[in-house]
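Researcher: Good morning. I'm working through a list of sequences from a screen, and I'd like to move beyond sequence-only analysis. For each chain I'm collecting a predicted structure so we can compare shapes side by side. This is the next one on the list. No need for commentary yet; just the structure.
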Amino acid sequence: MSELILHHYPTSPFAEKARLLLGFKGLSWRSVKISPVMPKPDLTALTGGYRKTPVLQIGADIYCDTALIARRLEQEKALPAFFPEGQEMIAASFAAWADSVVFQHAVSLVFQPESVAVRFASLPPEAIKAFIADRAGLFSGGSATRLSAEQAKHQWPTIMARLEQQLQREEVGDYLFGEPSIADFALAHPMWFLKATPVTSPLVDNYPAVSAWLARVLGFGHGAPSEMTSEEALEVAHNATPAALPDEVFEDPNGFKAGQQVIIAATDYGVDPVAGELLFAGREELIVRREDERGGVVHVHFPRFGFRIEAC
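Model: Good morning. Structure tokens for this chain:
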């Protein structure tokens, strides 16, 4: 069985979500550190242009977006489950809300001037400028709009009061919906992001039930990582054969067919397109085949939700 390889960097909120998913499952994995900013030539040799963090690699199969990464890890190890029986819809729907709405608020709060001054205090001005410019490019061209810090501050007490109320209920237990689920991990990473500096940490610390819940989720840890270089990861992909396609009927409501040349891209932000041969379209997942001189033949996997597909 091929190793789990996570391409990530330490301060990425969504990478922290993926690391916690691996920890919850108690999995061993290889850690490939990537740059927080473009260019990322070794990563895009595998993805074909997708630039968001993190990316999961299993041999010559490349998984984009933590929503799909969670489903792939569920296949790797069924229990403990991210989607507990009977709560699949509510857990996935809450996770999608947290990954978008709560994350959007956290980004605006973290990147307000007072927080940036503390968060990047050790970096030279040119490095800060480059990071801000990269993030402006990341959010260019997609449907996601940057929430102003003022509006984020205005709405944050409502989000947190609702969470505090939910987590205070004895019948709920230690997690959002009783037992741990994908909902907990999707909500945890924006809170973790805010906890990184004393400027934004009180936005979480002032809510005791949320703080106690967050400590429990972060307590799952990161599993058992070991370092790997990006060159080694490329070699793994080049020497591997992609896994068999899912045992599910190919069905696309817009009439796309297997073998068609397509472009797939995120719709919210990080909308860099990936071109390839469409191999599979299922209920949750799209798979394209592409070939790279260094990465070889790879299958790149995308979630259906939050991504668009177009004919080349």
